[in-house]
Specification:
It contains 7 helices and 5 strands. The chain has a 5-stranded mixed beta sheet with strand order 3-2-1-4-5. It has 2 domains: 153 residues, Nucleotidyltransferase, domain 5; 35 residues, no CATH class. Helix content is 50%, strand content 20%. Helix 3 crosses helix 5 and helix 4 crosses helix 5.
Length: 189
């Protein structure tokens, strides 16, 4: 199975293609799509999707794993990020890929064992786990590697959430998360 990990960003979007087999992971490619900030949003979307589609055609991934939405202080930034996520999701769904998203804390927990790890700690651990030489790699690319790796090695919380019954009430879903987090021994602040 080939997994595409995406760390979406309006200027820099990290990507990683990992092939998972019984022997573990093989890193196919990783890097960033850089859309110049001085261009209009629609031009940046076209730029990101065009570059992504070329790689989708090359590696033909089965699954898309993307960093989940977090609450931003700036509503405009959150809206722009939503456009980027939507464009990536459409390009991947058109190719029949499955989709999962992972909150940043879940990715950090999966890769480092600590849901509050720094981006640098995540990068160091994912490099070690995937056998990648450390270099001048943008954190967006290492985050994408971590997201793809998490999809292939979900932490117990993610597995429990997939098995848990879904409800329509938002409050039940939040309580479900809290219960699962407490079961893992993580303190909720």
């Amino acid at each position: 199975m080939v997994i595409l990990g995406i760390d979406p960003g309006s200027i820099t979007t990290g990507y990683a293609f990992l092939e998972q087999s019984g022997k573990g992971f093989k890193v196919l490619e990783y890097g960033t799509f850089h859309a110049p900030a001085n261009r209009d949003l629609e031009d940046r979307l076209v730029h990101i999707v065009t570059e992504l589609e070329a790689l989708l055609d090359k590696y033909r991934p089965d699954a898309l794993a993307m960093e989940g939405v977090f609450f931003a202080k700036n509503a405009k930034s959150a809206l722009v990020l939503g456009h980027i996520r939507g464009a990536v999701l459409v390009a991947c769904c058109k190719r029949g890929m499955s989709f999962n998203e992972y909150p940043p804390k879940v990715v950090k927990q999966s890769v480092t064992g600590d849901g509050s790890a720094s981006k640098e700690q995540v990068a160091n651990m994912v490099f070690a786990q995937l056998g990648i030489e450390k270099g001048d790699l943008p954190l967006d690319a290492s985050d994408a590697l971590a997201i793809a790796w998490t999809h292939g090695n979900p932490p117990p919380l993610s597995l429990a959430l997939k098995k848990a019954p879904r409800t329509r009430k938002k409050k039940a879903s939040v309580n479900q998360w809290k219960d699962l987090i407490k079961k893992m021994g993580v303190e909720i602040q």
